[in-house]
Design brief:
Blueprint (H helix, E strand, L loop, with lengths): L6 H4 L4 H12 L12 E6 L11 H14 L3 E6 L16 H14 L4 E6 L4 H12 L3 E5 L7 E2 L2 E2 L4 H11 L5 H11 L11 H12 L14 H20 L3 H4 L2 H13 L5 H12 L6 H7 L17 H6 L2 H9 L45 E4 L7 E5 L9 E10 L1 H8 L11 E5 L19 H4 L8 E3 L11 E6 L16 E5 L4 E4 L3 H10 L10 H9 L31
Parallel strand pairs: 1-2, 1-3, 3-4, 9-10, 10-11, 11-12
Antiparallel strand pairs: 5-6, 7-8, 8-12, 9-13, 13-14
Helix pairs in contact: 3-9, 4-5, 5-12, 6-7, 8-11, 11-12, 11-13
Length: 577
């Protein structure tokens, strides 16, 4: 009898085992009775509705070849593709659903190990969350970032250039014809954003956590190297099955701290803070905004890539990618955690590559792009749980600010009123968006980068203090406080703020306060009624009832694993279906 998990399906002489073996052969697989041949799931999240993930279709076959050459049998299994652009109200609503799908695909099938093929923002953490819960040997591959188009002689940084162009269009700096010309060049191929958005942030985090081969996180879509890494990952997962190298051996508090340090070093997405908390929660580890901020002590932004820097992901990849960042971070990277290679994360560190010192994309800690920590947690009477700000892409002059609130309730209210040239607003106002957290929409969309009111934009104002219980794109920028917890829809203070209330923030002190008396707060709370969700059935109803707050990762409460008993995979009864 084989020691493989899949042997429970394939070994034996009864009609059940016979049917299982015949099924694998019918699909083109290789399996024999009592043969030790690891079965590897290749989870493919490609979709025509998600160009970010389209490069994965080709890579799946390179993984299969690697698995086969290493003596395994690969089964390509399609899974939900979370496309950032087209899925509404947000792909974030479906991250936890993907995690459940991946976990159940692995649990219910004869799988000994898994290769996760992901790319777009929520697909990468969602798939990994499911694999961590299943706790089978896991390795992850991304489809790579897309090429850069050229607009008016400049390379277009995905997302970042769009937000800047939109403000130019709104202010009248460019006309409709220019705006359409920009649109024509924005469709620049498949792959993830070529800036340090959420997709690239999460890819680099997964590599730093130890679930990706060294250098794989920053690969360009369509490169031969991407195919080579896919083949190598297919071979390596078979070895990981032999070594029983499972997520529970790789994912630790130390590996999470290492991943957070890489996040700070690249000036990465604030969305990664939520995803790290959710991934950690599947292993029974608390790793929220405070832990991410603490891990960033002593770490500055050393990757000169947009939106915190100037370049694009292609340049970071050419400079050596994550291994080059690890080299510069040096002793800040903890040596204990092991990775999918079987070696420590430090073992993959490599000196950065650069044609000359002036063009270094990966800088030294004593010569950073921006001083760190890149992402900072704040808390106070407006956010008793926490809120976060991407300090590295904000205006330090606004880090300490006090001003009256101007409150928007939901997306339509925000987009309509910020276009109103008669809006009563000054640059000192604090723009507040409420009702847009995990429960509120539902799904916590990327609405937190509130547009500068057109009236102020026409006066040359390009940044203001903005606060919301929503998220923002990893490609975004500005003095924006996000993920305010608890959110307005569950009775958090941000849902009680009214126009004119004074709000004060202090990034260095880590505070965000609402200057309203306790008696007035209680009076407003007594008058508050929770919003009624229109969802009476299906996934959105389940989500609203069970989603946790942003500071806990916005996972579903019944998917977290607070005790060792919760972290035991319950395999199915193997019999007639």
């Amino acid at each position: 009898m084989s020691d493989l998990r899949s042997s429970a399906w394939f070994d034996g002489d009864d009609e059940v085992a016979l049917a299982h073996r015949a099924t694998v052969r019918a699909a083109g697989g290789v399996i024999e009775q009592n043969e030790r041949r690891p079965t590897i799931a290749v989870i493919d999240t490609s979709s025509d509705a998600n160009p970010c993930n389209l490069p994965l279709r080709e890579l799946a076959e390179h993984v299969r070849r690697g698995v086969t050459d290493a003596g395994g049998t690969a089964m390509v299994m399609p899974a939900m593709s979370l496309g950032e652009e087209l899925m509404k109200p947000s792909a974030m609503l479906y991250r936890n659903l993907l995690s459940m799908e991946v976990e159940e695909l692995l649990r219910a099938n004869p799988v000994d190990g898994v290769v996760l093929l992901t790319n777009c923002d929520k697909t990468t953490p969602g798939a990994l969350m499911g694999a961590v819960s299943a706790d089978l040997p896991t390795i992850q591959i991304v489809g790579g970032n897309r090429p850069a188009a050229i607009f008016d002689g400049r390379e277009v940084g995905t997302g970042t250039a769009l937000w800047r162009a939109m403000d130019r269009y709104r202010s009248g700096e460019i006309d409709r014809a220019e705006w359409r010309r920009f649109e024509a060049c924005y469709s620049c191929g498949t792959g993830s954003c070529n800036t340090v958005g959420t997709a690239s942030s999460m890819a680099m985090i997964v590599e730093a956590l130890g679930f990706m081969l060294p250098g794989a996180a920053t690969v360009q879509s369509g490169q031969d190297r991407s195919q080579d890494l896919s083949y190598a990952s297919g071979r390596r997962i078979v070895e990981m099955v032999d070594e029983n190298l499972t997520p529970s051996r790789i994912l630790t508090e130390a590996s999470l701290r290492n991943a957070a340090r890489v996040l700070h070093a690249v000036g990465g997405s604030t969305n990664a803070v939520i995803h790290l908390a959710a991934i950690a929660g599947r292993a029974g580890i608390t790793f929220g905004p405070a832990e991410v901020t603490a891990a960033g002590e002593g770490v500055s932004v050393i990757a000169d890539v947009q939106p915190s820097g100037r370049g694009l992901m292609r340049e970071l990849d050419s400079a050596g990618g994550v291994p080059a960042l690890l080299f510069e971070l040096g002793e800040l990277i903890e040596a204990e955690p092991i990775t999918c290679t079987g070696d420590s994360l430090r073992g993959s560190a490599r000196a950065p590559l650069a044609p000359n010192a002036s063009s270094r994309t990966v800088r030294q800690l004593d010569d950073p792009v921006v001083a760190g920590p890149a992402i900072r947690a704040v808390s106070g009477t407006l956010a008793p749980g926490s809120a976060v700000i991407k300090a590295s892409a904000s205006d330090p002059r606004l880090w300490r600010h006090r001003g009256p609130a101007l409150v928007f309730h939901g997306y339509d209210d925000m987009r309509t009123r910020t276009e109103d040239l008669d809006l009563d607003v000054t640059a000192d106002h604090v723009l507040v968006l409420t009702g847009c957290g995990p429960v509120g929409v539902p799904g916590m969309p990327e609405w937190g980068m509130i547009p500068i009111p057109r009236r102020l934009l026409n006066e040359g104002i390009t940044d203001m203090v903005r606060i919301s219980d929503a998220r923002m794109s990893g490609t975004s920028f500005g003095t924006v406080f996000l993920h305010t917890s608890p959110e307005g829809a569950v009775g958090g203070p941000i849902g009680l703020v009214r126009d004119g209330d004074m709000i004060s923030v202090d990034v260095e002190a880590g505070t965000i306060d609402w200057e309203v008396s306790p008696d007035e707060i209680e009076r407003r709370r007594s008058e508050w009624t929770p919003p009624v969700s229109p969802h009476l059935r299906g996934w959105p109803l389940l989500y609203v009832r069970h989603v946790e707050q942003a500071d806990r990762g916005a996972d579903l409460d019944f998917l977290t694993a607070p005790t060792p008993a919760h972290r035991v995979r319950i395999d199915p009864v193997i019999g007639r279906s």
